[in-house]
Amino acid sequence: MLDIKFIRENPEAVRQGLRNKNAADVIDEILSLDEKRRSFIAQTEDLKAKKNQVSAQIPQMKKSGHDTAAVFAEMKRVGDEIAFLDGQLSDIEEKIDDILRHTPNLAHSSVPVGTSAAENVEVRRWLPEGFSFENEFKILDHTELGKKLSILDFERGTKISGSGFPLYTNKGATLERALINFMLDYHLQNHGYKEMMPPILVNRDSMKGTGQIPKMEEDMYFIEKDGLYPIPTAEVPITNIHRDEILAEKDLTIKYVGYSPCFRREAGSYGKESKGFLRVHQFNKVEMVKFSKPENSYDELEAMVNDAENILKALKIPYRILMLCTGDLSFSAAKCYDIETWSPAENKWLEASSCSNFEAFQARRANIRFRREETKKPEFVHTLNGSGLATSRLMVSLLENYQTPEGKVIVPEVLHKYTGFKIIG
Questions:
Q1: pTM of this prediction?
Q2: How is the chain split into domains, by residue range?
Q3: Equal fold, 4-101 vs 117-424
Q4: Residue 261 parent element (H or E)
Q5: Are 407 and 423 in contact (CB under 8 A)?
Q6: Is 226 exposed, middle or buried (0-12, 13-18, 19+ CB in 10 A)?
Q7: 339 with 389: CB under 8 angstroms?
Q8: What does the pLDDT look like over 272-308, one tens digit per residue?
Q9: With bands split at pLDDT 50, 70 and 90, how would you rate the model's confidence at 216?
Q10: N or C: which end of the chain has fewer CB within 10 A?
Q11: Which CATH architecture has domain 117-424?
Q12: What is the pLDDT of residues 99-111, one digit of tens each?
C-alpha cells in the first residue's frame, strides 16, 4: 500500500507512476479525501480540548455554588458533535483505505517504462554447452511425450477435477517430487535459506497483506463456508509469518524457502494457450521470500535472481532473464525479473519464475516493521519473493530439452539421487 504522506508530498510523481503502470489516476480523489480527513481531525481535537478544559472547571464551579446545568448542556452538545465528526472521519478513512488498497505499487526508477510485455528488456541468457535452437529430430511436445511414456495424464486429471488440474503418474510423479526436493535442498545448502512448510489455506487478512485482495480476488478460489482461500503462491503464508510484528535489525535479511501446491482460477484467461502445463489451475512451486532492510533490498533482489538461475544451471536448462517494463509489472511489485526457460516443441520461451521487490508496499499492508538499533524507531521492512522455481513450465522444458530421438527422456544428473533412475523410457 502506498504511503498517504508520500502521495501528499509528491502528487505529480505518484500520478506519473500510476500512468506508467497503466493504472487509474486517483490522486485528486485521495488528496481531496485526505484534506477532509485532516480538517475533521483538527475540528475534533479542538472540540475535545474545549471539552477537557471545561470539564476541569466544573468541580470549581460547583464548589463556588454556580449553576452548571447550562455547562453540562453545552458539553453534551460538544460531545454529540465530536461523535458525529468521529463517524465522518471513520467513513473518510475507510474510503481512503479502500482506494489505497486498489492502487498499485510504483515502479522503481531503474524499471524501463513501457505499456505491455512487448517492451520488456532481455537482460541476459544462459545456454548449456552444445545447445542449439535447431532441433536435430522432431521433438514431441510435453503432452505427447507424457502420454507416450505414461508419466502425465491430463485427460484423467480433467475427469477427476476439470481442465487445468494435471495428473502425474509413475515416473512422472517421481520426477516431479525429485524436482521439488532438489530445489529445496539446493536453496538450503547453497543459498542460506531457512525452510518453511506453510498452510495452504489462508484467511482474508493474509491475502490483503500481500496484495492479492481486493484487486485480484476474482482470480482466486474461495471456501465460503470457512472463509479461507487456497493459496495462489507460498509467498502469501510465508510473508504473513511476520504480519503485525517488529523484527530486530540484527536478524535482517531473513530468508525463507518453502514448497507448496498453488491454486489459481485465472478468471478471464480462457481462450489463451492452455495445452497441458502451459496454463494450469493447480501447480507446484518452491518459493523464496526475503525480509530486508530498505537500503539492501535491491542487492537482495539481484541475489535472489541468481539463486533461481543456479537451479537452472545445475539442471542444464536453457533460460533467459527479462526485466519487466512498468506496464507489465504486477500490482504489488516495484521491480521484477522474469526467468523464462526454452521449449523446443513450442519454439518459444516459457515463464518459469518471477523475482520481485515490493519495497514497503506489502509490509505497510501487513504491518511488518523492524527496529533500528541506533534510533530504536520502527520502520517498514522491504519484502521480496521469487519462484525458485515453479515446476509446471520447468517440467515442459526439462522433458523436451532432455528428449532423445527414440522418444525417451534422460534425467538430469543432479536429480539421479532423488529419482533412483537415469532415464524414462
A1: 0.89
A2: 4-101, 117-424
A3: no
A4: strand 254-263
A5: no
A6: exposed
A7: yes
A8: 557 889 989 999 999 999 999 999 999 999 999 999 9
A9: confident
A10: C
A11: 2-Layer Sandwich (3.30)
A12: 999 999 999 999 9
